[in-house]
Design a protein that fits this description.
The structure holds 2 protein chains of 2 kinds.
Chain A: H1 2-33, H2 38-54, H3 57-61, E1 66-69, E2 79-82, H4 84-106, H5 114-133, H6 137-155, H7 161-192, H8 201-207, H9 211-226, H10 235-241, H11 244-254, H12 256-267, H13 278-303, H14 308-333, H15 338-369, H16 374-377, H17 386-397, H18 403-422, H19 425-453, H20 460-471, H21 494-511, H22 513-521, H23 532-537, H24 546-568, H25 581-596, H26 605-610, E3 620-621, H27 625-628, H28 632-641, E4 647-648, H29 653-656, H30 663-675, H31 686-693, H32 698-716, H33 734-737, H34 755-780, H35 793-817
Antiparallel strand pairs in A: 1-2, 3-4
Chain B: H1 8-29, H2 31-50, H3 53-56, E1 62-66, E2 75-79, H4 81-104, H5 111-130, H6 134-152, H7 158-189, H8 208-228, H9 237-243, H10 246-272, H11 274-280, H12 282-302, H13 307-328, H14 331-362, H15 373-376, H16 378-392, H17 398-412, H18 416-441, H19 458-476, H20 481-494
Classes of the chains: A mainly alpha, B mainly alpha.
Chain lengths: 819, 497
Amino acid sequence: MVSLIDTAGRWSPLLAVLLPLVGAPAVYYAFKKGNHLRGLIAVVVSLTPLLSLITAAPLILAGEHAVLPAPGIPDLDPHFRMDGLSYVFALLAAAVWPIITAYSLSQGYPRTGQPRFFATSMITFGATVGLFVAGDLLTFFLLFEMMTFTAYALLVHRRNRLTMQLSGIYLYMGVAGGLALFFAFMLLIRATGTAAIVPAVDQLAQAGTSPLLVAVFLLIGFGAKAGMVGLHIWLPSTYTRAPFPVTAMFSAVMSKAGIYGLLRFVTLVLVWPEPGHSQALTIAWIILWPGLLTMIAGAAMALKAHSVKRLLAFSSMSQMGYMLVGIGSLMALGSAGSLAASGTVMHSINHALFKTVLFLVAGTLALRAGGYSWNHLLGRLRGWHLIPVIIASLGVMGIPGISGFVSKTLIHEGLEEAYYTYRMGHLHLAEYAFSLGSGLTGAYYIKLLLALIAPRWAGWMEHEAENARREGIPDYFDPPPQPADENPVLGGRVAPAILLTLVGAAAFFGFFPHLAVRAVGLLPLIPYSFPAADVAHLPEVSFFGSHAMKAGIKSIILGVTFYVLYHFLLCRITIPRWFSLELMLLRTVQGASTLTQPGHGPEGIEEYAERTPVEEGERRPGPLHAITGPGMAERLTGFFNRGQAHETRSSGMAQRLTGFLDREDREQEDREQESGAAGEGRRPSRDMAERLSDWLEPRERKELQEEVEAEAEAEERKPESPAPRAPGGIPLSGRHASRPRPQSPRRLGIPGIDWEALSYRLDVIILKLKAKKEKWQTALGNLPLPDTSSVNTRNLNFAALMLAFLSTLTLIYLVSRTR
Amino acid sequence: MPGPEQYWPLWAVLVPLVGSVVAYILGVKSPRARDTFALFITVATFGLVVSMYPLLAGGKVIGVSFPNILMPFGVSFRADILSFGMAAIITLIYSLAMLYALGYMHEGPTSNRFYSCTLLTLAGCVGTVFAGDLLTLFIFFEAMSLASYVLVIHEQTPRAMQAGNLYFVTVIVGGLAIFLGMVTVYEVTGSVTFGELPILKDISLEGGMVTLMWISFAGFLVGFGMKAGIVPLHTWLPEAHPVAPSPASALLSGVMLKTGAYGLIRVIFNVFGTDMVKAAGWDNILLALAAATIVLGSVWAIMEDQIKRRLAYSSIAQMGYILLGMALLTERALIGDFFHIFSHAIMKACLFLAAGAVIHATGKERVSEINGVGLQMPVTMACFGLASLAMIGIPPFNGFVSKIFLGLGALDAGMPLYLVLLLISSFMNAIYYLPIIISAFFRQVPEGTDASYSEVPVRMMAPMVVLAVATFIFVVGPANLPLILSQLMTVSLMGGS
């Protein structure tokens, strides 16, 4: 019996990877055929890795590794290997995945495409568990990439255009991050001559490669996955647009792949024998400070977030910052960093626990309320949902008594220890930054709880709604969840059981922090060579002593202060539109995709159409120009003075679509409104219906069609409306002025460059030049100047591309020279 | 009198050569018999090549020469492990493409011509790699190029004829350039026969010899570079490859480009020798060309909407990898180079066959039109997807392994710049391949379009599936045969180490 468990334990890494992968087809067919046991099959398949990992517990506790060869590339010997650190993370993934699977099944979500969804989820699961137990660089890289790609299929489960576009950012960031990793791995493989994960500093020095370079590329690769500031650009939109179970998977598990990667490949590979080596410290600071920035920026954006899901998304980003801070302190302290190491891993676990609860409950509430915005969810948190949400929120805030406090304290102690060891000024500053981050975290969770529980206290709502209008943030940025299946596969009792168990564990370990440390805080330290005394001391850290409590209370006080500040002051601040990275990205992506996808007008209308009905009399920003910009002439002015979003009154389906129409139509509308001829706004035309028909889902198309027909009938009895007047404003070249916008003959598929806008800007520049030229000519007595009217913008575009490209190459060359 | 085993390379060339004539004659009587026969010939050639392995294992060389044919030079055939590897992948892709062609090609008055010329190009390719001297290589190289003209213009549309004209000019110019290089070598040494050591081993770069060597090298570079699609000489490639019927495109891109690369490898290692190449600084020229080819090929591919043209541009970029691998002149780079020759042949053949299947079934030729095709033709697009991921270099596909070895080779040579270049190119690969997969599988089918296409017949599907499986099976399987073969090929060129 003992030997059986032993064998199973040794095989468990491979089993944990293979079982979900093998089970995926079974899940697919069970759902495809509508088998009545399909929910159970999915849960069982997702539980298999957990079971197989549990059999390895005796081995791991005894301090052994479970090593298992995997087939693959000769000479480089890929294999699976499990030590304490891998084990904790693998167990985390293996525990969270079945929970999310069971929960989403019990909510009947997603309603459509379940076979695809759950089968893909199992494959992603296998890859995610696998990368935690990978024993060498290549296996890790294989599974890391596999996770990136299969997770994309989960993200775009709701396959509409805007989701595809925004998730594209994730995909390409993932590929680029993977390539950065690949570069670092190649440097390591070449230096050590093997793909095994071994301390490599000496070999790197021999091979003439700077460990700093390796660390930077690793940080880019893993930081992109974890959502480090600067590399987080994919995170908010991807999180908000994914189905909520997927968001929970991402936040709880997949982003931890970045944290695990940094722990495994930076702190265990770039190891200097003596602590405090200057390069080690440099690496530590380039992890620590981005971590602090991530923490603060994420928390600040969460405070100003305009929907619950977005708040939670930014909160995830901010919490990743804590873990990065822990890794930075660990890197700085070297073999004295047991507190930081333990804190980082425990915080990963706690964060996974809390975010699972929060995202799942938020999803459930939004399913009932019809959206994630404050408007929808205000005061919606009632009944048994109160307990898990309150405990989880307090846990993320770091309130003593819940396990989040334990890990936060450990990370904080680690940071303090780094300060006391090195006594550097910027570390002192880091302490303040840490407090600031904690305070902001407290503030936005107070905001969240108040909004969800006590709506009458949420006076900031009005200001925020006003802000959203001024910022021109389209509310379909935070789409409501698609309706759920009314007859869920699993019983409704599953959900409360799951959530209450989770938060119960959090509260239990919060009250008994030493048990928590003993349970999970010591295992991940096995691969590190910390002094035994340090490790033994770890459970004796005084969590409820005055020092730790002081820090905890300080963060609570700061949190309340920040919240009060927010309530009375900060909520009135409108963030300028140009500051929104997301709008910018969306414009870029859409600019590229209008060129790659022919025959379509502006983007995102189906999103717009699926949003919830507008309340009577409420004025909203024009639906589409927030994204695609208003008509051409207005876009022009928009480029000059970034004018406010055009506002239109909308009531009813057809009016909401008027954002499509260009300026002349709107002028017409304005005139009509002024003269009181047609106060209701614009009516849909047949032409418009045709133009829009590609964009809508069948239901909406039908609706629109009916509306158009009704309008047409009414039209027949009325005299014809006056013909549209030619647009005024600055005259433009024929290419842009003509409507509908002609497709440029050669479409460019480069995301990241808004070709339309670029060529537009060039046109603008040419126009300006022309105007200047005329001015000069009159001023200087008709000096002959070259005629700029014949400049072909596409050639200019191409030249600009080439220039950018060559300069990139030059840059890379220079970088590579200074290795 | 050489023993009978020495004649194997000759048989491998003669079988398809004679087969092409027989196929034409058969086709006049019975198209069905011709189809079977053509398939049989390609498979038989593959079998002949594979069965040659025991004769070549352990670095042995076999071959025969006929000094009396074409008097001053003579014609000779020679097979070493390098030729064997090339011939094996060439004949494998030919067999699969031929099977595919049986399902893809519509019977018509030009069918005989197509099959006959395909077999002729096979003879040309095999002859090129089994050539024992530069003249034989030149003869078969030209035969292959001229016969493939017929494949390019097969559809005889104005566009195909135009592309054919460009191709024809390229072939002539390239052939003349190779001839120039060859004659110069003959003038200097009096011999053009390949041996263990480089032909020009005794020549030192001094005085007037420098000019001669430069002329000779430039001739070879232009001639073989044109075939390989190196950047300033690539102009014919994106025109000619897409207009050919899809199986022929797969052969042109997957196989015939590689003969250009093979020629350059022979020139570098067996004609000039690495010492001379380094001394003259030609490796830097090759590296610069490789960099330009990789970058520009990818940029053009991104800007292209037509699938087959995008694939053709991608071929240019990938030939840049291969050129890079040989120009780095390090052992691991060369291993990666050979492995990438195998990988790219498999991946690109698979991609062209799958693109052809989509065109065959739906008539859609553009990336922007294929929304939702993946759900209608799951097997075809799955093959396309696997091969695309392999192209990007995602593990566990073979493209990843070649990237590892090429990258390690670049680091060995002390040029991490080229590793970065490979990674940028991988990213660009992702930019132009992923949208195809995403459109095919994830984007919704535009409403109102009649979207019911059926999968292609098994004859077309089987080769795609085989190739798609081949993109990863060797890497995850117990023995990575192409990698082992690449290592053997590298040892045969670089000497034991």
